[in-house]
Write a structure and sequence with these properties.
By secondary structure, the protein is mostly beta strands. The protein is built from two helices and ten strands.
Amino acid sequence: MAKISNITAYPTISNLDGNDYLIITDANNSLATKTVTLSQVQSFLGLAADSPVIANVSVSSATLLTLATSPATLIAAPGAGKILDIISIMCYLDAGATPYDFTPSLSIKIDTATIGSISNSSTAMNSAVDATFKPEIPNSNEIYPPNSALTLHAGGSNPTQGTGVLYVNVYYRVLTVGSSF
């Protein structure tokens, strides 16, 4: 039998599913080798299906230069009867040789509801040096429709210059809308 670390004999899986199997040793049954699903492990660890997850999104310079006409999807729509619950967003701009010239600020939206904005100041999106920042949260009561993506928008027009990559770290969960909400 090959070693578990042998990725030729045991290829790496790229899209985990709760029904995928793991091999375990059962301590309560003479150390017998058994299988368990990822969902069983998740339940054992107390991680519900709506437990928070993290999305690490890279927004390229080419995408940033067209945000006013083509918003970037940070998290895809979760599906019918589901809604995104955004817990936290943190950004890192890996500034390039030329700073961006965004005007006005960038908006982070669920459907048409703005849930955050990224300053166009010289210390955030229009920075000439690397910058780490948290989007500003608006003081308003927005309604978020189910099955809507989290997107990044540039108001006004596209920037005329800029290089660099924006990395967005989103901590969120997907909730099911209905009586079990």
